[in-house]
Amino acid sequence: LLSHFSSIGFWGLVNNAGISTFGETGWLPMETYEKFADVNLLGSIRTTLAFLPLLRKYKGRIVFMSSIIAYFTLGNGIYSMTKAAIEKFCDALRLEMKKFGVQVCIIQPGNYARSTKIQPPVSAEEIWSELSEEEKADYNKEYVQERADFFNSILSEGSTNGSEVVDAMVDALTSPAPKARYMVANLKEKVLVFVCALFPTVVMDSVLSYALSK
Questions:
Q1: pLDDT tens, per residue, the chain with 214 residues
Q2: Phi and psi, residue 5, nearest 5°
Q3: Is 79 a catalytic site residue?
Q4: What's the Cα-to-Cα distance from 207 to each of 72, 102, 118, rounded to whole Å?
Q5: What is the pLDDT of residue 122?
Q6: Which of 24, 118, 28, 22 is nearest to 65 (CA)?
Q7: Candidate list 58, 71, 79, 182, residue with the active-site label
Q8: Among the four given CATH numbers 3.40.630.30, 3.40.50.720, 3.30.450.20, 3.30.2290.10, the one describing domain 12-122+160-187
Q9: Where are the domains of the chain?
Q10: What phi and psi, each to the nearest 5 degrees, are found at residue 107?
């Protein structure tokens, strides 16, 4: 492998590491927020900084795994938070690397939970048992069960064709003119992103609130 790439040096870096979990904002302890920031955001930044001198030298590519969840959230705000942050990191990096001939690409998959197994099914009982007494006072088991069932139904609808995401990663690494962003999602997911990006926030909040009420 090294001899095959000896003529172009260190060409590509793919930042793909990520973890996911479910839970409303107050349900998760600070330690969980720190862990997610460390893996999903700072992990990619550490790797990027370590290899940046080589990537500048060989005019290579940097690919980041984001998600359409960077635009909206339906019960996994902690994951959305890290993906939105990595997108902004990429936006800054992409502009800064142009002068060196380094191209930065973002992959934005839709729901591929059944392909990646990034998110295990949610257990309402486990969530309830880990809530603080203050959270238990403001919520009830029935609500937690409803939210868990809703999130599990989303997971069960995930695509099993993970090769679509891999194809986008390969194109980002090998295309003569790679895209800044590759959105690999179904039509419904793309419509949600479109609404979120172009309509007033109140419209998106209404759409998501309606979805959550179901």
A1: 444 455 667 889 999 989 998 888 999 999 999 999 999 999 999 999 999 999 999 999 999 999 999 998 888 899 999 999 999 999 999 999 999 999 999 999 999 988 887 888 888 999 999 898 899 989 989 999 998 998 888 888 888 888 999 999 999 999 999 999 999 999 999 998 998 889 999 988 898 888 777 6
A2: -105, 10
A3: yes
A4: 11, 38, 26
A5: 83
A6: 118
A7: 79
A8: 3.40.50.720
A9: 12-122+160-187
A10: -100, 130
- Side chain identity at residue 103, one-letter code: Q
Structure tokens at 91: 């936006």
The pair of structure tokens assigned to 148 is 């868990």
